[in-house]
Specification:
Blueprint: H1 7-44, H2 59-78, H3 89-110, H4 122-152, E1 158-163, H5 167-178, E2 184-190, E3 202-204, H6 209-215, E4 220-223, H7 230-242, E5 247-249, E6 261-266, E7 269-274, H8 282-318, E8 324-330, E9 336-342, H9 370-378, H10 385-391, E10 395-397, H11 404-410, E11 426-428, H12 430-433, H13 443-458, H14 462-478
Parallel strand pairs: 1-2, 1-4, 2-3, 4-5, 10-11
Antiparallel strand pairs: 6-7, 8-9
Length: 484
């Protein structure tokens, strides 16, 4: 740092640089959508089945204004332009689908003014909305990949200081270290005792925060201090305010991490409200059940009718034994259900060892057949469970049903384990699309899986289910290293 320049000035310049980068990132998302819509309006509309169409000098500009207005108004409700760098692209696709639906509704209202000149039929609306959706998704994917390149090149990342090495803070640090494309870099840690976390520099105790910010450049401060130190947290926030540096606070409330919490204010006092489960409402249960039935029927009609017989024949030809594997597991409210799968192991494989412990499938497990390995890698062994969904035993999306011996072993060792059974088990789930598949080698790995399941249960929505299904399809083609 230049000694002739006050450190506060240097810090402000760094913060402004990052802010401008973020603004350009946000502007690129708005601009790409506007360009996509304009291109489709001027190039694609004549090929979309308009009736009584008489082009004039006013039609295209007005139609573009209506389209852009509908798209960006809808984005306020769909939160289309929220920063999703740390979320999976599947979430952005679902958000774009939601925005496209709202867009079509708003555009239909706007186009009432054109009804005398042009007949807008259903084919046009479907073609136009689909074209905009597809083009905008392609642009969003390109922007995301380009942003990742900038992050790895060090041109678009936020350098943060971690204050407090609580378990919540360590988890945050591990996450941003594992997923470098999030664009966060830990430039240092303050803690009451020396710590070494992913190679981050130790700057000293929490009380040194003001001195550290004076002589070092950070774009953000992440405070992860225990709840027992409210005055220390308050003081840290005041120091950050003095330097006009953004602050994130990671509350040390692990016991509430998976619950449905809403923060409201009572005057100036923040209050945590614990909301009821979304699936406690009959209308949500009806919507989820309708989705399960519709999705399962579409699967059997479009895919299962030809793919499942082929897989059954291959299983029969490749190894001796039945095609199907049936196992009793726990479903909703711990009721026993018969779960169906394609057989992936040799006949008479042992489920428990000599000590009576359940034998989970492991990497290079000799019990798994060659075809079975492929079926597990691609999740095709789970396809018969769509029959369970039609029966009402399972849902398309939900916590995966575990074998009963694994349930019994986890009840007393994993926190809130039995709460997984407050909803129907699923063919796929939020835990699975986040990498929690296959063997659970430790209690902590099972706890992580349960935490994902409880997060899903407390935050269920129809669009959340759509996101999980989409991410599952992506994972099938991309492959999962934890599936074996």
């Amino acid at each position: 740092m230049d000694s002739s320049r006050p450190p506060e000035v240097e810090h402000q310049k760094q913060s402004m640089k990052v802010t401008k980068s973020y603004i350009r990132y946000q502007q690129s998302k708005f601009l790409s959508d506007a360009i996509s819509i304009a291109t489709i309006v001027f190039v694609g509309i004549p090929f979309m089945g308009l009736k009584n169409y008489e082009p004039n000098q006013y039609f295209f500009p007005l139609f573009l204004v209506f389209s852009l207005s509908a798209w960006f108004i809808a984005s306020f409700f769909s939160r289309l332009y929220a920063d999703r760098r740390t979320n999976k692209f599947a979430e952005e696709i679902i958000s774009t689908i939601y925005n496209a639906v709202l867009f079509a509704i708003l555009l239909a209202a706007f186009l009432y003014f054109f009804m005398k000149q042009v007949e807008f039929n259903n084919l046009f609306f479907l073609s136009y909305t689909m074209a905009i959706f597809l083009v905008t998704v392609v642009f969003k994917y390109a922007i995301r990949k380009y942003t990742h390149r900038l992050v790895y090149a060090g041109k678009f990342s936020e350098n943060f200081l971690l204050v407090g090495a609580t378990p919540a803070g360590v988890d945050f640090l591990d996450t941003v270290h594992k997923y470098g494309y999030y664009g966060y870099h830990c430039g240092g840690v303050l803690h009451h005792s020396p710590v070494q976390l992913n190679g981050s520099k130790y700057f000293g105790q929490v009380e040194a925060l003001e001195e550290v910010l004076t002589y070092n450049d950070f774009d953000e401060v992440v405070i992860a201090l225990p709840n027992t130190q409210p005055e220390v947290v308050k003081k840290a926030v005041q120091v950050c305010d003095k330097f006009s540096i953004p602050v994130k606070i990671i509350p040390d409330i692990d016991q509430y991490a998976t619950t449905n919490i809403q923060v409201n204010n009572l005057g100036l006092i923040p209050v945590l409200n614990f909301k009821s489960l979304p699936l406690d409402k009959w209308e949500n249960r009806t919507l989820k059940r309708s989705f399960d039935i519709a999705f399962s029927l579409c699967f059997f009609l479009l895919i299962g009718s030809w793919l499942m017989p082929i897989l059954m024949l291959l299983i029969k030809l490749s190894s001796k034994g039945p095609v199907m594997f049936k196992q009793v597991r726990w479903g909703l409210n711990n009721e026993k259900i018969t779960c169906y799968k394609f057989r992936t192991m040799v006949v008479q494989s042992k489920d428990v060892d000599e000590a009576g412990s359940y034998l989970q499938a492991t990497k290079n497990d000799p019990r798994i057949t060659a075809l079975g390995l492929f079926l597990r890698k691609t999740s095709l062994d789970e396809l018969p469970q769509f029959y369970n969904v039609l029966r009402g035993d399972m849902s398309v999306v939900g916590p995966r049903p575990h074998p009963i011996p694994l349930n019994m072993a986890s009840i007393d060792t994993v926190d809130n384990y039995m709460l997984r059974h407050m909803v129907k088990p699923g063919i796929t789930g939020w835990a699975q699309v986040n990498g929690c598949r296959g063997e659970t080698k430790s209690i902590s790995s099972m706890q992580k899986r349960v935490n994902y399941d409880l997060y899903y249960i407390h935050r269920w929505s129809f669009w959340f289910d759509c996101q999980v299904v989409l991410q599952t399809i992506i994972n099938i083609f991309r492959g999962d290293q934890n599936a074996y």
